[in-house]
Specification:
This protein is α/β, with parallel strands linked by helices and about 300 residues long. About 40% of the residues lie in helices and about 20% in strands. The protein has nine helices and eleven strands. Strand 3 (about 100), helix 5 (about 105-120) and strand 4 (about 125-130) form a beta-alpha-beta unit. Helix 1 (about 10-20) packs across helix 3 (about 35-50) and helix 2 crosses helix 3 (about 35-50). It starts with 9 loop residues before the first helix and ends with a helix. It comes from Paracoccus litorisediminis. Belongs to the LysR transcriptional regulatory family. One of its GO terms (biological process) is DNA-templated transcription. One of its GO terms (molecular function) is DNA-binding transcription factor activity.
Length: about 300
């Protein structure tokens, strides 16, 4: 398909919009799951096409130029129109699939073992799961529901599913397992952590320990952390309610009887505003909340 000579590439506009929204190239890259250099390439291409800069580059920050502000308003209006049209089309079709964005670790360890129960009861509702580390933009129609982890997202139509119980864990044959008797003992060993997670900071501070003293190994995804724990590569932070199956099987073993529970380490359900009253959405949310009550 031939590209328009006047319309900028849609992907570059999306990257620009995310950079402006996140106020940073690296944050935009993390949200879109592309490298910072790829973000810079899209912005340069857009600025070259328009013949003017869209951002002012400061030493540690960026800001929109007048042209950038004008382009942001235009892209936001355009994306809003597309999202509204998609929402109208989806609402007119009661059989449209329910699209759920969620972390791969939540899908693998919690939802997939339970989803057959929903499908058996509601075979007429098609559920599409999108396990991803990227934050789906519900406002722009990328998903109908999202399940996220951490502190409460500052968005409308959000409710807590359940709070985690955080506790360091190792494999059954981890050489130092019997030597870990007090919280401070974990600081002598490699601490496995997933990027963007605050689990270790929360647990260490709750136990009066300094997170800067930890020997952290950063891994991309929490599922990889679980594999690293089971492989004996170090001590990982078990989200005990999420991985109760792996604990019950003995694949990973908590180091202490009690963990730390806080809203800062919780699972949250977010619904797109126009989707809240959709019959399929209401049925799925009701089922999900009932399942989460059993988790607590």
């Amino acid at each position: 398909m031939r590209r328009s000579k006047t319309l900028p590439p849609l992907e570059s506009l999306r990257v620009f919009h995310e950079v402006a929204r996140q106020s940073g190239f690296r944050k935009a890259g993390d949200a879109l799951l592309i490298s910072q250099s790829a973000v810079s390439h899209h912005i340069r291409k857009l600025e070259d096409m328009l013949g003017r800069p869209l951002f002012r580059r400061h030493s540690k920050s960026i800001s929109l130029t007048d042209a950038g502000q004008e382009m942001l308003e235009a892209t936001q209006a355009g994306f809003d129109l597309i999202a509204e049209a998609a929402a109208r089309l989806r609402q007119s079709d009661e059989t449209a699939p329910l699209r759920i964005s969620l972390l791969p670790s939540f899908a693998t360890n919690w939802l997939l073992p339970r989803i057959d129960g929903f499908r058996t009861r509601h075979s007429d509702i098609e559920v599409q799961l999108d396990p991803t580390l990227a934050l789906a933009d519900l406002a722009n129609g990328e998903a109908d529901l999202a399940i996220r982890y951490g502190s409460r997202p500052l968005v409308p139509h959000c409710r807590k599913l359940f709070a985690e119980e955080l506790c360091p864990a190792v494999s059954a044959d981890y050489p130092a397992r019997m030597s870990i008797r007090a919280p401070s003992d974990v600081l002598a060993y490699p601490l496995l952590d997933s990027q963007g997670s605050h689990d270790w900071r929360i647990w260490l501070e709750a136990n009066g320990l300094d997170p800067s003293k930890g020997q952290f190994m950063q891994l991309r995804d929490y599922n990889v952390v679980l594999e690293a724990i089971a492989s004996g590569l170090g001590i990982g932070m078990a989200r005990k309610r999420l991985v109760s199956g792996q604990i019950a099987s003995g694949r990973i073993q908590p180091c202490f009887e009690r963990g730390v529970t806080t809203d800062q380490a919780s699972h949250w359900l977010i619904a797109r505003g126009d989707q809240v009253q959709h019959p399929a959405t209401k049925i799925f949310i009701k089922w999900l909340i009932a399942e989460c009550a059993d988790t607590d």
